[in-house]
Amino acid sequence: MDQSEPRQTKSSDRRDLETMRHSAAHVMVAAVQRLFPGTKLGVGPTVEHGFYYDMEVPRPLTSDDLPVIEAEMHKILAERPEFEREEMPIETAIDYFRAHGQDYKVELLSDLKERGTTRVTSREDMDVDPGNRTSATMYRTGEFVDLCRGPHVPSAGRIGPFKLLSVSGAYWRGDEHRPMLQRIYGTAWFTREQLDHYLWQLDEAERRDHRRIGRDLGLFMFDEEVGPGLPLWLPNGTVLIEELERLAKETEERAGYVRVRTPHVAKESMYLRSGHLPYYAESMFPPMELEGVRYYLKPMNCPHHHKIYAAQQRSYRDIPLRLAEYGTCYRYEKSGELFGLMRVRSLQMNDAHIYCTLDQIEDEFLAVCRMYLGYFELFGIDQYLMRFSTHDPNQLGGKYVDQPELWKKTEEIVRRALDHGRINYTETAGEAAFYGPKIDVQVWSAIGREFTLATNQVDFAVPERFGLTYVNARGEHETPICIHRAPLGTHERMIGFLIEHYAGAFPLWLAPVQAVVLPIADRHAPYAEEVGGRLRARGFRAHVDTRRENLNHKIRDAQLQKIPYMLVVGDRELEAGTAAVRLRSGENIGTISVDDLLARLDAERGQRQHAALDTALGHSDNA
Amino acid sequence: MDQSEPRQTKSSDRRDLETMRHSAAHVMVAAVQRLFPGTKLGVGPTVEHGFYYDMEVPRPLTSDDLPVIEAEMHKILAERPEFEREEMPIETAIDYFRAHGQDYKVELLSDLKERGTTRVTSREDMDVDPGNRTSATMYRTGEFVDLCRGPHVPSAGRIGPFKLLSVSGAYWRGDEHRPMLQRIYGTAWFTREQLDHYLWQLDEAERRDHRRIGRDLGLFMFDEEVGPGLPLWLPNGTVLIEELERLAKETEERAGYVRVRTPHVAKESMYLRSGHLPYYAESMFPPMELEGVRYYLKPMNCPHHHKIYAAQQRSYRDIPLRLAEYGTCYRYEKSGELFGLMRVRSLQMNDAHIYCTLDQIEDEFLAVCRMYLGYFELFGIDQYLMRFSTHDPNQLGGKYVDQPELWKKTEEIVRRALDHGRINYTETAGEAAFYGPKIDVQVWSAIGREFTLATNQVDFAVPERFGLTYVNARGEHETPICIHRAPLGTHERMIGFLIEHYAGAFPLWLAPVQAVVLPIADRHAPYAEEVGGRLRARGFRAHVDTRRENLNHKIRDAQLQKIPYMLVVGDRELEAGTAAVRLRSGENIGTISVDDLLARLDAERGQRQHAALDTALGHSDNA
Question: Mean per-residue pLDDT for B298-311?
């Protein structure tokens, strides 16, 4: 199955896909109207991977209705109707929809007539052209007519394989004081293969849902009294955190980073200096007032690190200085926008700031990119994209700090680094941060779902605000450039991603419990403890399951817990100093001596120190 | 030198010591009056290890005056005056002091007459008996007369060896709107040996001051814009933190603890449930209001851990459950009370909560005590005291939760654990926490200074407030007992203590930089890098000093940085694959092969896994 298909679609293909999907939505509504006469139409835009339509149907729909509607859609498609575009004066359109009892369409057209738009909020897309218009565009498909800006496929015959996915309630115009309509989601693709892949991906994503697996494997929890968006990490999840931290620390240590720890709060004045206040204020937790001074929870680690840089006069011999911290930041996200580990209010970032000269950026930036590649290889992420965002010269002094030369230079340097590193990247103008060019890193999980994990930023403005300098070889003070980077993103999102990526079956080095010893009968318990003890002495996380359950029950439990190794021990194993080894996959790899088992586990755990990671870091081993 | 002398003093001896010191203060003031006629007296109580007196002297004193005053004191002592007690009507006393121009004494006597006390605040001790009095007590020593409640030694001949220590300014009655007086501090002891020991200790404490060493070794810093009491850990200090954390994690893992991570904030409602609000509110940071809900920075980790305990139904098979976290808590301390790492606002605690049955407390408590002993042995702390605080039966239902049986039982259990463990402890009634008996752990540093590092508490009240239960073997729900413990205290105070204890010369496993390689000339730099690389590959923190300074300069710098090993390499060493090894003590241990050096370093670093720690934890290796 080609998991990369969706995103390798060219943008022209993508537009065609959207047009086709929206046409499929029209056919869906036509089918609903045939099955449920009197259905009133709301709106129906396309969304990523599909479409929906909101409707007021005479009776509540259930998922059982979806196959019936699909069958009706196939009937309509068999009739191969055309999509006919028609433009008419708004008044005529209003009369038409009023005559057909389509109150919601009448409301939209009246808005269009009076306000020139159908939007009620800036984020609402009502699928009707904005602008001060006197005419409306209508699309007719057989007997079905809809107010719609189009475009559509010329004929329903061009609609590819589709599937209706779900039905749910949705307030008209997202307003809880307006009527609740029914929303049907569907998807449509050019080929059956694409549709099948997408449906498989949906199934897999549900099976791999990090919230469900997080609960089943005891990784994390939320608590109403602690607060939304504030995960509490349970023992198994804490193992994941600590293993990731160990990985990052070892990798960064070898790459010449030093570590720091900074408080979670700071005075208002520091955030005024950094510019977080007032520009970032609405993403910050509100202040605490202590002895007449306002303190804020830190939304980012950079200002604290700048303070550490500034704590002593630095010389050109001291830089590049790479300050790393797995710092916990707090950001305000609206309750409604929180989502599992993917959108939270407390974020523990794999953060570091690299202070260097302009001449050093290329090497440093490339080293950071290579660190990414090393991690990708370790995690088996074979599809990634770095989106390189540059400035817009027309917005210098406005959206962008007014340093045209520095922009040009740093962007060239970053581009060169990406090229030299043979990094897979795209470039977009006008998306840079205020203070320098940046890279957003996207990865695709094992089932082809896209995640934005991290950003890299070059910052040539903020070091000056903090008065950071170094004395160059000629004894002059210069301002360093700062690179912000976080290859492993935050624990929250990274672990959310890894849960889906591995479907909870983490590689040995990362697995919360690496092996469980299963004595067949009570009399084998001492030997089981001995085997478990040997594993623990070798640094493995090994449990002994001495519950009075039968063996199959224990094996099933261990499989559900995705424990990599199950070591069954009975009379024969006790006698011979061996264990019968099963993998969580169900594979039985036979009876082996405990010595051989330890050697095997050592080798497998050692995969973390994969040659790829060594290579990626090779450049800085002599730092 | 017997460093334990001061605290082994019996309490009757301690009272005698205070009496003698206060008498010494009278002699000191008599000397000042002789030298500086017209001196007006404020007050002069005793303090820990000494005494002071506040005076208005006709000209400002400097430390150069102290030997002169000491000499005058010796003259007075040579006269062997008696201390004569005299009681007179307050009016007579007022007249006497007014006649002698002693305005401050007149003020005190007038207060005594009008208000029955000389105190202006509850914490002020003006050295005059409280109570509604009509007469005042005066003490006369030769020509010197003071208003004083006594007691005093009968004769100045009984005053032991003394030393004046410092002179500084102090507002009359601590009020910045009243005159600034001059305060002379002094100390006095029974024997010359005691005095010498104390003066040595003072000198050493200054030399070992954690704030100075913290700055010199680049361990931590404070920043005005971050805020007072909020240390930022520099790279070398972060090594200390991470090594201590690693020690705690390994020790706790072997002792059957599991680790969790919890947010630094929680809703008000949780702290109302825990009772921190309102009872502990004034030690907490003020709230942040988000979406109409108040959030607080956590002052302790326990409520978050209780939430994790409560996340699933526990059974008797699950407990003892030992939840550990190096959690950072935030507490409000007044700016004026902050002191280096010793009193801070952010505290990263070596925290854990043990949930167990009443039957399990003894073993668990003893295991915790043994963990302390293991740490003490590792750190070479040979003097410690556990202060066991029990409840006061008369205050049940008031200061103490009204569960007389549980108090009796748990106190007995703890006492038994302490006895069985041959723990050095004292017992004090009426000092327990609201919810159970506790132990405060005091240790003495290498120079005999006392530090309170940690507390252990038994808690049989709060688990019920959080509705914590386990299902016992009979299927009934029971409430567990909780033990709060933090053997390594907080990083802040522990590292402050260790800095003084080791005077910054940390043992190899803890030293921020473990070895520095010093090439004699530039041409030896590649070999120096090779040696450094081999050390780093073995997991040692090794630097290569390639600065163009001469060797002696580099050696001196390394000694100032307290780097345990200095490896000098020149032609001979390059040739032979060796290094000339110097220790930070200055000791030269000769030229040895790099292989032998690595073996030596391995062995020395391995001292952390000392048999003592293994023994201390032996009981729980099969947990």
Answer: 97
The pLDDT value given to residue B387: 95
* Contact assignment for A308 to B263 by CB distance below 8 Å: no
Section B437-450 average pLDDT: 92
Q: CB distance from B281 to chain A under 8 Å?
A: no
* Burial bucket for residue B101 (CB in 10 Å: 0-12, 13-18, 19+): exposed
A-chain residue closest to B348, CA distance: A263
ipTM of the shown complex: 0.87
For A499-508, what is the mean pLDDT?
96
Q: How many residues does chain A have?
A: 623
pLDDT greater than 80 at residue B38: yes
Q: Which CATH number fits domain B11-206: 3.90.1720.10, 3.30.980.10, 3.40.50.720, 3.30.930.10?
A: 3.30.980.10
Architecture of domain B515-608 in this structure = 3-Layer(aba) Sandwich (3.40)
Q: What is the pLDDT of residues B110-127, one digit of tens each?
A: 888 887 766 544 444 444
Residues of chain A with C-beta less than 8 angstroms from the C-beta of B239: 259
Third-level CATH fold of A215-504 = BirA Bifunctional Protein; domain 2 (3.30.930)
Nearest CA to A20 among A193, A191, A164, A153? A153
> CA–CA separation, B105 vs B146, rounded Å?
9
Both tokens of A50, joined, read 């599909």
Q: What is the mean pLDDT of residues A416-433?
A: 92
Residue in A with minimal Cα distance to B229? A263
| A86-112 pLDDT per residue, tens | 888 888 889 999 999 999 999 998 888
Question: Which residues in chain B are contacts of A541 at CB distance < 8 A?
Answer: none
Q: How far is B309 from chain A (nearest CA, A)?
A: 10
Say whether pLDDT at B138 is over 90. no
Interface contact A273, partner B, CB < 8 A: yes
Distance CA B186, CA B168 (A): 12
Q: Any CB–CB contact under 8 A between B239 and chain A?
A: yes
Q: Give the residue among B268, B209, B220, B218 at the shortest CA–CA distance from B490.
A: B220
Residue ranges of alpha helices (H) inside A285-325 are 302-310
Residue B266: closest CA among chain A residues belongs to which residue?
Answer: A226
Angle at B333 between CA B332 and CA B337, to 5 degrees: 170
Exposure class string for B170-193: b at 16+ Cβ within 10 A, else e? bebbeeeeeeebbbbbbbbbbeee
Residue B53: CB atoms within 10 A of its CB come to 25
How far does the CA of residue B459 sit from the closest CA of chain A (Å)?
A: 21
Question: Does the distance separating the beta carbons of A335 and B227 come in below 8 Å?
Answer: no
Q: What percent of chain B has pLDDT over 90?
A: 76
Q: CB under 8 Å to A614, separation ≥6 — which residues? A: none
Q: Which of A27, A77, A91 is nearest to A53 (CA)?
A: A27
Domain chopping of chain B, boundaries = 11-206, 215-504, 515-608
pLDDT for the residue numbered A126: 46
Query: Does B234 reach chain A within 8 Å, measured CB to CB?
Result: yes
Average pLDDT, chain B: 90
User: What 3-state class would DSSP assign to A211?
Assistant: helix
> Is the distance from CB of B164 to CB of B60 less than 8 angstroms?
no
A227 and B266 within 8 Å at the Cβ level: the answer is yes
- To the nearest 10 degrees (0 to 180), the angle between helices B594-605 and B525-537 is 40
| Cβ pairs bridging A and B (under 8 Å) | 166
Each residue of B327-374: pLDDT tens digit?
999 999 998 899 999 999 999 999 999 999 999 999 999 999 999 999
pLDDT (average), residues A556-564: 97
Looking at the complex, report in whole angstroms how far the Cα of residue B270 sits from the nearest Cα belonging to chain A: 5
Do the chains contact at B225 and A267, CB–CB below 8 Å?
Answer: yes
Determine the average pLDDT of the residues in B578-599. 96
